Amino acid sequence: xxxxxxxxxxxxxxxxxxxxxxxxxxxxxxxxxxxxxxxxxxxxxxxxxxxxxxxxxxxxxxxxxxxxxxxxxxxxxxxxxxxxxxxxxxxxxxxxxxxxxxxxxxxxxxxxxxxxxxxxxxxxxxxxxxxxxxxxxxxxxxxxxxxxxxxxxxxxxxxxxxxxxxxxxxxxxxxxxxxxxxxxxxxxxxxxxxxxxxxxxxxxxxxxxxxxxxxxxxxxxxxxxxxxxxxxxxxxxxxxxxxxxxxxxxxxxxxxxx
Amino acid sequence: xxxxxxxxxxxxxxxxxxxxxxxxxxxxxxxxxxxxxxxxxxxxxxxxxxxxxxxxxxxxxxxxxxxxxxxxxxxxxxxxxxxxxxxxxxxxxxxxxxxxxxxxxxxxxxxxxxxxxxxxxxxxxxxxxxxxxxxxxxxxxxxxxxxxxxxxxxxxxxxxxxxxxxxxxxxxxxxxxxxxxxxxxxxxxxxxxxxxxxxxxxxxxxxxxxxxxxxxxxxxxxxxxxxxxxxxxxxxxxxxxxxxxxxxxxxxxxxxxxxxxxxxxxxxxxxxxxxxxxxxxxxxxxxxxxxxxxxxxxxxxxxxxxxxxxxxxxxxxxxxxxxxxxxxxxxxxxxxxxxxxxxxxxxxxxxxxxxxxxxxxxxxxxxxxxxxxxxxxxxxxxxxxxxxxxxxxxxxxxxxxxxxxxxxxxxxxxxxxxxxxxxxxxxxxx
Lengths: 258, 430
Known about the structure:
The structure holds two protein chains of two kinds. The radius of gyration of chain A is 22 Å and the shape is globular. Chain A has a single domain (about 45-255), classed as MetI-like (MetI-like fold, Orthogonal Bundle), CATH 1.10.3720. Chain A has helices at about 5-30, 45-55, 55-90, 95-105, 105-120, 125-150, 155-165, 170-195, 200-205, 215-220, 225-250, 250-255. Chain A is about 80% helix and about 0% strand. Chain A contains twelve helices and no strands. By secondary structure, chain A is mainly α. Chain B is globular, with a radius of gyration of 25 Å. Chain B is about 25% helix and about 35% strand. Chain B is α+β, with helices and mostly antiparallel strands. The two termini of chain B are about 40 Å apart. Classes of the chains: A mainly alpha, B alpha+beta. The interface of A and B includes residues 156, 161 and 167 of A.
């Protein structure tokens, strides 16, 4: 039995979800459509996915994206973890702002300023410059995830470890690090997804021959939204979804905004 | 030094000292000899010879303007169950954290076995802490938790295994080694925390309100276990609590703290029977405080003019009270006799001053006052009667409900007589 009020609530919720996910559903559906046009449903096919595998440019871009996402997520995780611990330990407002500002900063601003910087230091734009840029904006997210985890830890655990004979380093390795691991992994996965589908910052910091998947999709869409674009978008979506699901399992706190 | 040994040594010394009355209950400087006597139990502390296990010397700790510890000094002997007791914010936990090395004092020194601990990191201090919420490592099994201090100390793997098994055996949880702390009950966590802290035989165990998270029944059971454990292993316990009942039940000696200062250090029975101040009298157990003024003192016998009540004699007072000084008579509810007014034998209402206050005579000497039952509280084993005296002060008294079939001897508004022997109360100066 649903009251009028609950019915209204359910209806509005359904509308919001429709608004959010209808475009994505269309992309997924048409990636399996046996027609060059995104107009009407003709029949089911895997052929656009097959065509992707033959598209050398697309494969290079995908490989670039994976390399960039893995390396930037790895380095951002190490730096972000240290930043998160420092933020918790020293509780300096300035430190917090400095670490977290890139999250709130407009991407276009980050992109432009990084481009200016790379040109100033005469750096060749390519995979390295993209990685540096991605590390910059990922650190904040990892730090946030780690900080959320660390503030939920009982400080007595650290004291107990010291009390029972552990040096500060042993204490970090045996107690702090294992207990922070879910937060660190969640941060790493978030960094990975942010890196793999970033467009704006990558657009400014990429050079010739260092195209990533989002840049490749963009250049294809400039001509027309082909079923191949639908197929690669669907795959990208799938990767992101899986990673985010794993991350939310590992560290529910950051996704609940605790 | 084990407590039982010192008791034997003390008895022979007691005989020696009892010949010198002035010494039998006197402390002669902290570094020479201190003799404490309660009944036939005598404690002899010779600071120079044995040396306290733990010496806290003028330790201070400030947090900005807040004085958490104000020049605290304590001597704790090997094998002692020593309790820091006080209300929250009195500095007891701050002191414990200084002992563990989690925090540094602003002044003073902490000596363990005569060596200063100030510059020693927590991991190098030969003592362990039991935390209020046990602080078991959630990502390690029970066995791994207990193995942790051994592993940190570099004990060989095979030795660790046998010693962990022994430790689990000792706390009677031999089959819990493979479980994670989350799967344990509160009492089990408590035992594992104790096993972990004792597995590598520290010189000293610090316990920070370890029973506060347990329910009343389990707490009582754990108290008995703690007493037995401490007796068995002979390791010195420094125990922090705000629960005076717990402190009285567990401790050999108690330091009562308030506002960062030590108010009194004594054995439980001395603390209860001979509080040194209003604060201690009020904080330890239930206590009536009757304000008055000292009239005169003859040896250990003091005459006090209680405000609005009249003159009473108080026997067995060790301290010197100057005539005219303001004081309070502390009276425990259970030491006050409550009876119907008609039962007063007229002859003994006004006891004359005694030339020789021998224990037997002084027992007979009573102070008596009449009052009205203001309210009562039936508690099952006893009934509490609050009696309004002539000066308007409420006096709390206890009456055991030992007679079968009878519960309420008095009703609210009844006129009653309250009486106490002259050695029932204890004087504290304002």
